[in-house]
Design goal:
The complex is a heterodimer of chains A (about 180) and B (about 1050). Chain A has about 180 residues and is an alpha+beta fold. In chain A, about 55% of the residues lie in helices and about 15% in strands. In chain B, helix 19 (about 535-580) runs antiparallel to helix 20 and helix 22 packs antiparallel against helix 25. Chain B is elongated and about 210 Å long. Classes of the chains: A alpha+beta (about 180), B alpha+beta (about 1050).
Chain lengths: ~180, ~1050
C-alpha cells in the first residue's frame, strides 16, 4: 500500500479521536513510523496491523473499521487531497462508477508499485449497477463497501449495497450490487 | 472525413480520437470542431472566424493569415480560447482533399483543478491522451510536496527540540558541580565537563590526551586498573569507588565516583563517570581516624604510665583512676565513683582541708608536692612527686593528681650530691689553682689551691679584676687575647708571668676554657693554674746551656778551620819544597832522606785530611763531587799505588778485571779511590803473610743503574767479633797495642762507612781472628757515559802558545815561592802581591792578567775583601781562583757568592791548580765548583715524597708518621720476601710484594716501580728465574738505601 493509505487511517483516527488515541493505536500495532509518506509504498502488513489496532483500541470490528475507512477515503482523502481528480471521474455517481474501470486502469500506470484491484461494471440500469471487485488482497471488501458508500455520499446520492458474491464463498471476486434512488 | 487513401476515420472516430480538434478553411473560418472543445467554447463556432474566438500564443505569426498558418505546420502551436482562457497544445495539419487546416491538440492546464471550471471529465479526453494522467501525477506531486513540507517542518521541529535538549544537556553538564566525564575502553578521556577540568586543574585539551589513571595517585594506579578491569569482566553496569588524585598543581584530592559501563554505536564500551570531590570528607575521615588512634594511644599511655593518675570533682568524688592509681589505692576500676578523696588521703579526713586544697589550686592553677605513697597491694612504700592541677570542663571543676614514683631520681640526686661533694673536696684540696671569672674578668670563685699559689685569701680577691691583681704589665695583652678566644669558645693552655701577693714574679701555666651556664650562654671563663716558676727556670738554664754548647761547637769548627789553615799552610810549603827539591840532582842518601820526608809529609797530610773529613761529617758538610768516571781505571790506579807497599811486605795483591762490562759510572771517583785505598791500606797494614784479593762484580738490575759489588779479602790478623761491633766508631782500634804496633788515627773506617752511605752503598765485614778479613761493599750507581769522562791527561799550560800573566796574591812567602816555582815551569809570568791591598794597587796600575790566584786569609786586606773591590769597584772580570787551606763548604760558597770563579785547596796538587788556571784562562767561564756544589746539594734521593705531601696537605707530622710506618713495614716485608725466596715460597713473595707495592709507589721510589710489578707478576705465576732473583736482589739494595735515606729524612 502507498503511504497515503496509512496516512488516511492516521487522519481518520486523529481527527475523530485525537492524537493520543493514534499514539496508543500505533503503540498497540507495534509500528514505529513517525510519518507516512503518501507516494512511498509500505508493506501491506502495516496497514492491516493499523486496522487491527484501531479495531482493538476502539473496540469495533475490523469490518466496521474498514467500512468507516472506505467512506473516509472518499469524503476526506479523495475530496480534500485529490480534489477535482475525484470529481473528474464523472458528473454523477453512475457516471463515476461506469468510468471507474477506465479510471482505475489509468491509476495502475501512475502507481507502478501498486497492486491495484480491478473493477468491472455490469448490469447498469438507471438506478443501479453491479461493481465487480477483483483483488489479489483478501479481506478488503469492507473497505470497498465503505468506498462505495462514501461515493454515494460524495455525489449526494446515498446508495444501497448488496454483496452478491464473496471470494470466501468460492467466487473468484466480489460483486457489489449498487442501487440508488 | 477521409484523411488518407488508406486510413479513413469516421466523424465519430475523429471525435473519440481527437475530441479537441478544430478545422479551418483558407478563409480562416472554422469548418468543424471536436466535442470536448465544443463543450468548452459553449456554442457552435462553425463558420465563425478563427481569430474571433482564438488567439495563437505560439509560434509568433506576423500576420494572421492562411499562408502563415500553412507555412507553420511543422511548429508546435499553443492556441488560446479567449473566453475561457483555455490553452490548447497541438499542431496544424493540411488536409489536401478538403483544403483545410486541422488542429489536433489537447488542453494544457497546470492542475487537474483547472479542469473543474471547464467541467471537463475523464471521459472528455481521448483514452490515449495522457494529459489526464499527467495531471494526476502532478496532483500526486502536489500531495507529496505537501507531505515533504510537513516532514520538513516536523524535522525542523524535532531538530529544534534536539538542539534545545542538547543545549539544556550541555548547560546541565557545564553547570553541574559534579564531575562528569567519559572515557574510551582504554581509559582515555573523550569528554570531561568543566567541573572535572576545574577539579583536576588541567585544560580540556590536556585532559583529552590523558587517561583517568594518569590522575590517580601512583600507589592507587594498579588498584584502580584492577577495579575497572573487574567491572568489564563481570559486565557490571555500575560501580562506586573512591580514589586519591593528584591535580596539575600537585595537590592531592579525593574523588568518589560512580562509573557506568556503556556501549557506543560501534558496540565498543565506554566508561561514563559521575564523580564528586570528597577531599574534605576524606580529610575529616582521616582526621577522625587519627584522633581515634591518638585517643587510643593516649588511653594506652595513661594506663601504662608508671604515674598514678587520679581525677576527682570539687566535691571530692573520684571520677577516674588509671591502672597504676587503681593498683596503688587498691580501688577496683568499676568502683571508682563510690570513693571520695578522703577515703584514702588521710590529710583530707577533715574535709575543710580538701576545700582549702581546692581553693589553693583554683588560685594557683597547679602545685607540686613531694611525699610518700604506699602500694596497698604490695605494701611497698616509695617517694613520690605529686603534681596537682585544677581544670574546668563545661563549668565543672576537676582536680587532677599525677603521682610519680621518684625513687630512682632520689637515688640519682643522692649520687649527684655525693659526686658534687667529692669534686668540691678535690677542688678544695688539689694543688692546682682553680679560678672562675665573669665576662668582665671579675673573680667569682677560687679554690684553696689558687689561694696557695697566689698568696691571696678568697675574701681578698673575689669580685676583683683578675688581670689587675696578678698579671705583669708585659702580659696584659696576652690576657686580652685569651678573653677574646674564650668568647669564640676556644680552650687552650698558655704560660703567663704574674705577680703573687708578695710582689714576686711567678710563672703560671694556665689551662683556660670558656664557662657556660645551663642555657649554654657564655658567662665567663674558668682556668686551672699551676705554678711552673721552677720548671721555667730550668728551661731558661737549659736554653743557656744549649746556646753555650752551640757556641762551643762553633768554636770547635772555627778551631778546626784555623788549625787546618795553620797546619796546611806550612805543609803546603813543605810539600811544595820537597817537590821542587826532588827535581834537583841529589845524592842517593839525600834522595832517601827526601823520600822519607815526602812520605812523612804525605802521611801528615792524610791524617789532616782524615781529621777534616771527620769534621765535615760531624758538621753534615761531607759532600760528593759527582762526575762520570771509569771504575776499572780507579782500581788500576789503586793497584799501582798499593802494589809497591805490598811488595815491601812480600804480599800478593790481586785485583780482578772484568771483561765486557760497563765500568763507566756517575759518582765521586776520588772518594771511591779514598775508600779503596783505605781498605786495601788497612789490609796491607794488618797482613803479614799471604796477600790481598780485591774482587768486583757488576750486575744490571735496573735501566740506568748497575749494582757494583766489591770485596777486599786479606789473610791478615782478623778481628774479634766484639771489636767488629765498634769498628765504625771514631778512634776505635782493637786495643792500645794495635795503635802502637800499626799506627793510624782510628778514623779511617768511620770515614769509609760515611762515604759508602753517602754513595747509597752498604758495607759488611766478616772476619776471623788469625784467619783473615773480608769486607763486602754494595753500591747502586747510575751508569755513566764514557764521552763525559774527566780528562786525566791535563792539557799543560805550556801547550798554549802564549805566555799567561798570573797575579799571585799570597801573604806566605814560602807558598808564594812554591807556587811561583811550579807555575814558572808552565809558561807562566807570575806577578806577586803580598796581600789584597797590594793586589788592588797592582791592578789599578792597569796591568792585565789572565788569572788571579787569591789566598783568602791575609793581613791588611783578605781575599774576600779584595775580590769585592776587584769586582765591584774596579769592575775587573779577570778570573779569580781562591787558594784556601779551609775546605769547608760554607767558605767555598762564600767565595762563589762574592764573585770568585774557582777554588783550589792548599796544599794544592799541581794538576788541579794547572787545570783550573788553564780552564779559566781559556775563557771557560763556568765554575766547575758550582756544578759540584749543586750536584752535592741535590744529593740524589731515591724517593720522592711529593705525592705523600700532597695527600697529607703538607702535614709534616703525618708525613713523618707515614715514613716511620713505611720504614718499619718495608723492613719486615723485605726480610719476608728474601726469606720466602730462599725457601722458594713464591706465594709469600707474591702476597708480600703485592702488599708493599702501593706504599713503594706512594713513597715515589721510581727505581722500584717496574721491579715491584715484575716481582709481583712472576711470583704470582710461580715463575722462578734468574731475572726474578736479580730483581729481588735489586729490590733489597735499593730499598736498603731508601730506608737509610728516609731514616735521615725523619731525623
Amino acid at each position: 500500500m502507498y503511504g497515503i493509505v496509512n496516512k488516511a487511517i492516521e487522519e481518520l483516527v486523529t481527527e475523530n479521536f485525537g492524537i493520543d488515541k493514534w499514539e496508543a493505536i500505533k503503540e498497540r500495532s507495534g509500528i514505529d513510523i513517525d510519518m507516512f509518506i503518501s507516494n512511498e509504498p509500505y508493506d501491506d502488513d502495516i496497514t492491516f496491523k493499523l486496522v487491527g489496532a484501531v479495531s482493538e483500541e476502539m473496540k469495533i470490528s475490523v469490518s466496521d473499521v474498514l467500512r468507516a475507512f472506505g467512506e473516509w477515503w472518499i469524503m476526506r482523502t479523495g475530496k480534500e487531497k485529490y480534489g477535482y481528480l475525484m470529481e473528474s471521474g464523472g458528473n454523477n455517481l453512475k457516471d463515476f462508477l461506469v468510468n471507474l474501470p477506465l479510471f482505475h486502469n489509468r491509476v495502475m500506470m501512475i502507481y507502478p508499485k501498486l497492486t491495484p484491484p480491478e473493477f468491472k461494471i455490469s448490469d447498469v440500469v438507471d438506478n443501479g449497477l453491479n461493481v465487480h471487485y477483483f483483488s489479489k488482497r483478501v479481506g478488503l471488501q469492507d473497505f470497498v463497501h465503505g468506498l462505495l458508500t462514501g461515493l454515494g455520499k460524495f455525489y449526494g446520492c446515498p446508495v444501497n449495497l448488496e454483496l452478491l458474491t464473496l471470494r470466501e464463498e468460492g467466487s473468484d471476486h466480489e460483486i457489489f450490487r449498487v442501487t440508488w434512488n | 472525413m477521409e484523411l488518407n487513401s488508406n486510413i479513413i476515420f469516421s466523424e465519430n472516430q475523429i471525435n473519440k480520437l481527437f475530441p479537441f480538434y478544430l478545422e479551418i478553411n483558407s478563409d480562416l473560418k472554422i469548418t468543424s470542431i471536436g466535442p470536448s472543445l465544443k463543450k468548452i467554447t459553449n456554442g457552435n463556432l462553425v463558420e465563425s472566424y478563427l481569430f474571433d474566438d482564438f488567439s495563437i500564443e505560439r509560434p509568433f505569426l506576423t500576420n494572421h493569415n492562411w499562408d502563415n498558418l500553412f507555412n507553420s505546420i511543422h511548429d508546435l502551436f499553443i492556441i488560446k480560447h479567449e473566453k475561457s482562457d483555455l490553452l490548447l497544445r497541438g499542431q496544424f495539419e493540411y488536409l489536401k482533399d478538403r483544403k483545410t487546416l486541422i488542429f489536433i491538440g489537447t488542453p494544457w492546464v497546470q492542475s487537474i483543478d483547472n479542469l473543474k471550471e471547464k467541467k471537463l471529465f475523464i471521459t472528455d479526453f481521448a483514452i490515449h491522451d495522457p494529459t489526464f494522467d499527467l495531471l494526476h501525477i502532478i496532483k500526486n506531486i502536489e500531495i507529496n510536496s505537501e507531505d515533504i513540507k510537513i516532514l520538513l517542518s516536523k524535522l525542523k521541529q524535532k531538530s529544534e527540540l534536539i538542539k534545545q535538549s542538547e543545549a539544556n544537556y550541555k548547560a546541565t553538564l557545564n553547570m553541574a558541580s559534579e564531575i562528569i566525564y567519559k572515557t574510551n575502553r582504554d581509559g582515555y578521556f573523550i569528554y570531561v565537563n568543566p567541573a572535572g577540568q576545574r577539579f583536576s586543574g588541567y585544560s580540556n585539551d590536556e585532559l583529552m590526551k590523558m587517561r583517568f589513571v594518569d590522575l590517580v595517585r601512583s600507589d592507587y594506579v594498579r588498584k584502580t586498573i584492577k577495579k575497572y578491569l573487574k567491572q568489564i569482566n563481570n559486565s557490571k553496569e555500575s560501580t562506586y569507588f573512591e580514589f586519591p588524585l593528584i591535580t596539575k598543581l600537585g595537590d592531592e584530592k579525593w574523588l568518589g565516583q560512580s562509573v557506568q559501563l556503556n556501549y557506543n554505536s560501534n558496540n565498543d564500551f565506554e566508561f561514563v563517570g559521575l564523580a564528586i570531590d570528597i577531599t574534605k570528607q576524606k580529610i575529616n575521615e582521616f582526621a577522625l581516624k587519627d584522633t581515634n588512634r591518638k585517643l587510643e594511644l593516649l588511653q594506652t599511655l595513661i594506663n601504662n604510665t608508671t604515674d598514678a593518675i587520679q581525677v576527682s570533682k570539687e566535691n571530692g568524688q573520684v571520677v577516674y583512676l588509671n591502672f597504676e592509681a587503681s593498683d596503688r589505692l587498691g580501688i577496683p576500676l568499676n568502683a571508682v565513683s563510690n570513693y571520695f578523696v578522703w577515703d584514702f588521703e588521710k590529710i583530707f579526713e577533715d574535709q575543710k582541708a580538701w576545700v582549702e586544697h581546692v581553693n589553693t589550686l583554683k588560685s594557683k592553677g597547679s602545685i607540686v608536692i613531694e611525699g610518700k605513697n604506699m602500694n596497698q597491694r604490695t605494701g611497698n612504700v616509695f617517694p613520690v612527686e605529686v603534681t596537682v592541677r585544677f581544670i574546668e570542663i563545661n563549668e565543672t571543676g576537676y582536680i587532677i593528681a599525677n603521682s610519680r614514683d621518684i625513687t630512682e631520681r632520689k637515688i640519682i640526686e643522692e649520687n649527684v650530691r655525693k659526686q658534687k661533694e667529692k669534686y668540691e673536696n678535690i677542688i678544695a684540696n688539689m694543688n692546682l689553682g682553680l679560678l672562675e671569672v665573669d665576662l668582665e674578668e671579675r673573680i667569682q670563685f677560687v679554690n684553696p689551691g689558687f689561694e696557695q699559689i697566689s698568696g691571696y685569701s678568697k675574701e681578698e680577691i673575689i669580685g676583683k679584676k683578675a688581670s689587675e691583681v696578678f698579671v705583669a704589665e708585659t702580659h696584659l695583652s696576652l690576657v686580652q687575647d685569651k678573653l677574646f678566644d674564650r668568647a669564640k669558645g676556644h680552650s687552650d693552655m698558655y704560660e703567663i708571668l704574674v705577680k703573687n701577693r708578695t710582689g714576686e714574679n711567678r710563672w703560671w701555666m694556665v689551662s683556660g676554657a670558656p664557662n657556660y651556664d645551663d642555657k649554654g650562654e657564655l658567662i665567663g671563663s674558668i682556668g686551672i693554674h699551676l705554678d711552673i716558676t721552677e720548671q721555667k727556670q730550668l728551661e731558661l738554664d737549659l736554653e743557656l746551656a744549649k746556646s753555650k754548647a752551640e757556641e762551643s761547637s762553633k768554636a770547635k769548627e772555627a778551631f778546626l778551620a784555623n788549625m787546618s789553615h795553620e797546619i796546611r799552610t806550612p805543609l803546603n810549603a813543605i810539600i811544595g819544597m820537597i817537590r821542587e827539591l826532588s827535581k834537583e840532582m841529589l845524592s842517593p842518601k839525600q834522595k832517601t832522606y827526601l823520600e822519607n820526608t815526602s812520605v812523612a809529609s804525605q802521611h801528615l797530610l792524610s791524617v789532616l785530611n782524615n781529621i777534616l773529613d771527620i769534621s765535615k761529617i760531624e758538621a753534615g758538610e761531607l759532600q760528593l763531587d759527582l762526575h762520570h768516571f771509569d771504575l776499572q781505571k780507579i782500581l788500576n790506579d789503586v793497584k799501582s799505588i798499593m802494589l809497591s807497599k805490598c811488595g815491601e811486605k812480600g804480599l800478593y795483591l790481586n785485583i780482578s778485571h772484568l771483561e765486557n762490562k760497563n765500568v763507566i759510572f756517575i759518582g765521586d771517583s776520588s772518594r771511591f779511590r779514598q775508600i779503596l785505598l783505605n781498605l786495601i791500606g788497612n789490609a796491607v797494614k794488618f797482613t803479614d803473610y799471604g796477600g790481598i784479593t780485591v774482587e768486583y762484580n757488576i750486575e744490571d738490575l735496573h735501566p740506568g743503574y748497575q749494582a757494583v759489588y766489591i770485596s777486599v779479602t786479606d789473610t791478615g790478623v782478623g778481628m774479634d767479633e766484639s771489636y767488629l761491633k765498634n769498628i765504625f766508631n771514631k778512634f776505635s782500634q782493637e786495643d792500645t797495642s794495635t795503635s802502637r804496633k800499626y799506627g793510624g788515627s782510628g778514623l779511617g773506617m768511620t770515614i769509609t762507612k760515611e762515604l759508602i752511605q753517602l754513595m747509597n752503598g752498604t758495607i759488611e765485614i766478616k772476619s776471623k781472628k788469625n784467619v783473615g778479613t773480608t769486607i763486602f761493599m754494595n753500591f747502586l750507581i747510575p751508569i755513566g757515559d764514557s764521552t763525559k769522562l774527566l780528562k786525566d791527561d791535563m792539557i799543560s799550560i805550556g801547550d798554549t802558545n802564549r805566555l799567561l800573566n798570573i797575579l799571585l796574591v799570597e801573604d806566605n812567602e814560602f807558598n808564594r815561592l812554591a807556587a811561583s816555582n811550579t807555575l814558572s815551569h808552565f809558561n807562566c809570568q807570575i806577578t806577586e802581591a803580598v796581600n789584597g791591598l797590594d793586589a788592588i794597587h797592582i791592578l789599578k796600575s792597569g796591568k792585565i792578567f789572565d788569572v788571579i790566584l787569591m789566598d783568602l786569609q791575609m793581613p791588611i786586606m783578605d781575599g774576600f775583601e779584595s775580590t769585592k773591590v776587584i769586582r765591584n769597584t774596579l769592575k775587573i772580570t779577570t778570573p779569580i781562583i781562591a787558594l784556601t787551606a779551609n775546605a769547608f763548604k760554607s767558605e767555598l760558597e762564600l767565595c762563589l757568592n762574592i764573585g770568585m770563579n774557582d777554588c783550589v785547596t792548599k796544599p794544592f796538587e799541581e794538576e788541579k791548580l794547572l787545570n783550573a788556571i788553564y780552564r779559566l784562562a781559556q775563557g771557560h767561564s763556568q765554575f766547575p765548583l758550582t756544578d759540584a756544589v749543586e750536584k752535592a746539594n741535590s744529593q740524589q734521593k731515591l724517593y720522592d715524597l711529593s705525592q705523600l705531601r700532597s695527600i697529607s696537605r703538607n702535614d709534616s707530622v703525618y708525613c713523618k708518621k707515614m715514613i716511620t710506618i713505611f720504614i718499619e713495614q718495608s723492613t719486615d716485608s723485605l726480610s719476608q720476601i728474601i726469606e720466602a725466596y730462599k725457601c722458594k715460597d713464591l706465594s709469600v713473595v707474591y702476597s708480600v710484594s703485592h702488599r708493599i707495592k702501593p706504599s713503594i709507589d706512594l713513597m715515589g721510589i721510581d727505581l722500584l716501580r717496574e721491579t715491584m710489578r715484575f716481582i709481583e707478576k712472576e711470583s704470582k705465576d710461580n715463575c722462578d728465574s734468574d731475572e726474578l732473583k736479580k730483581q729481588i736482589h735489586f729490590l733489597q739494595m735499593v730499598l736498603n738505601n731508601v730506608l737509610n735515606q728516609l731514616r735521615e729524612e725523619i731525623v
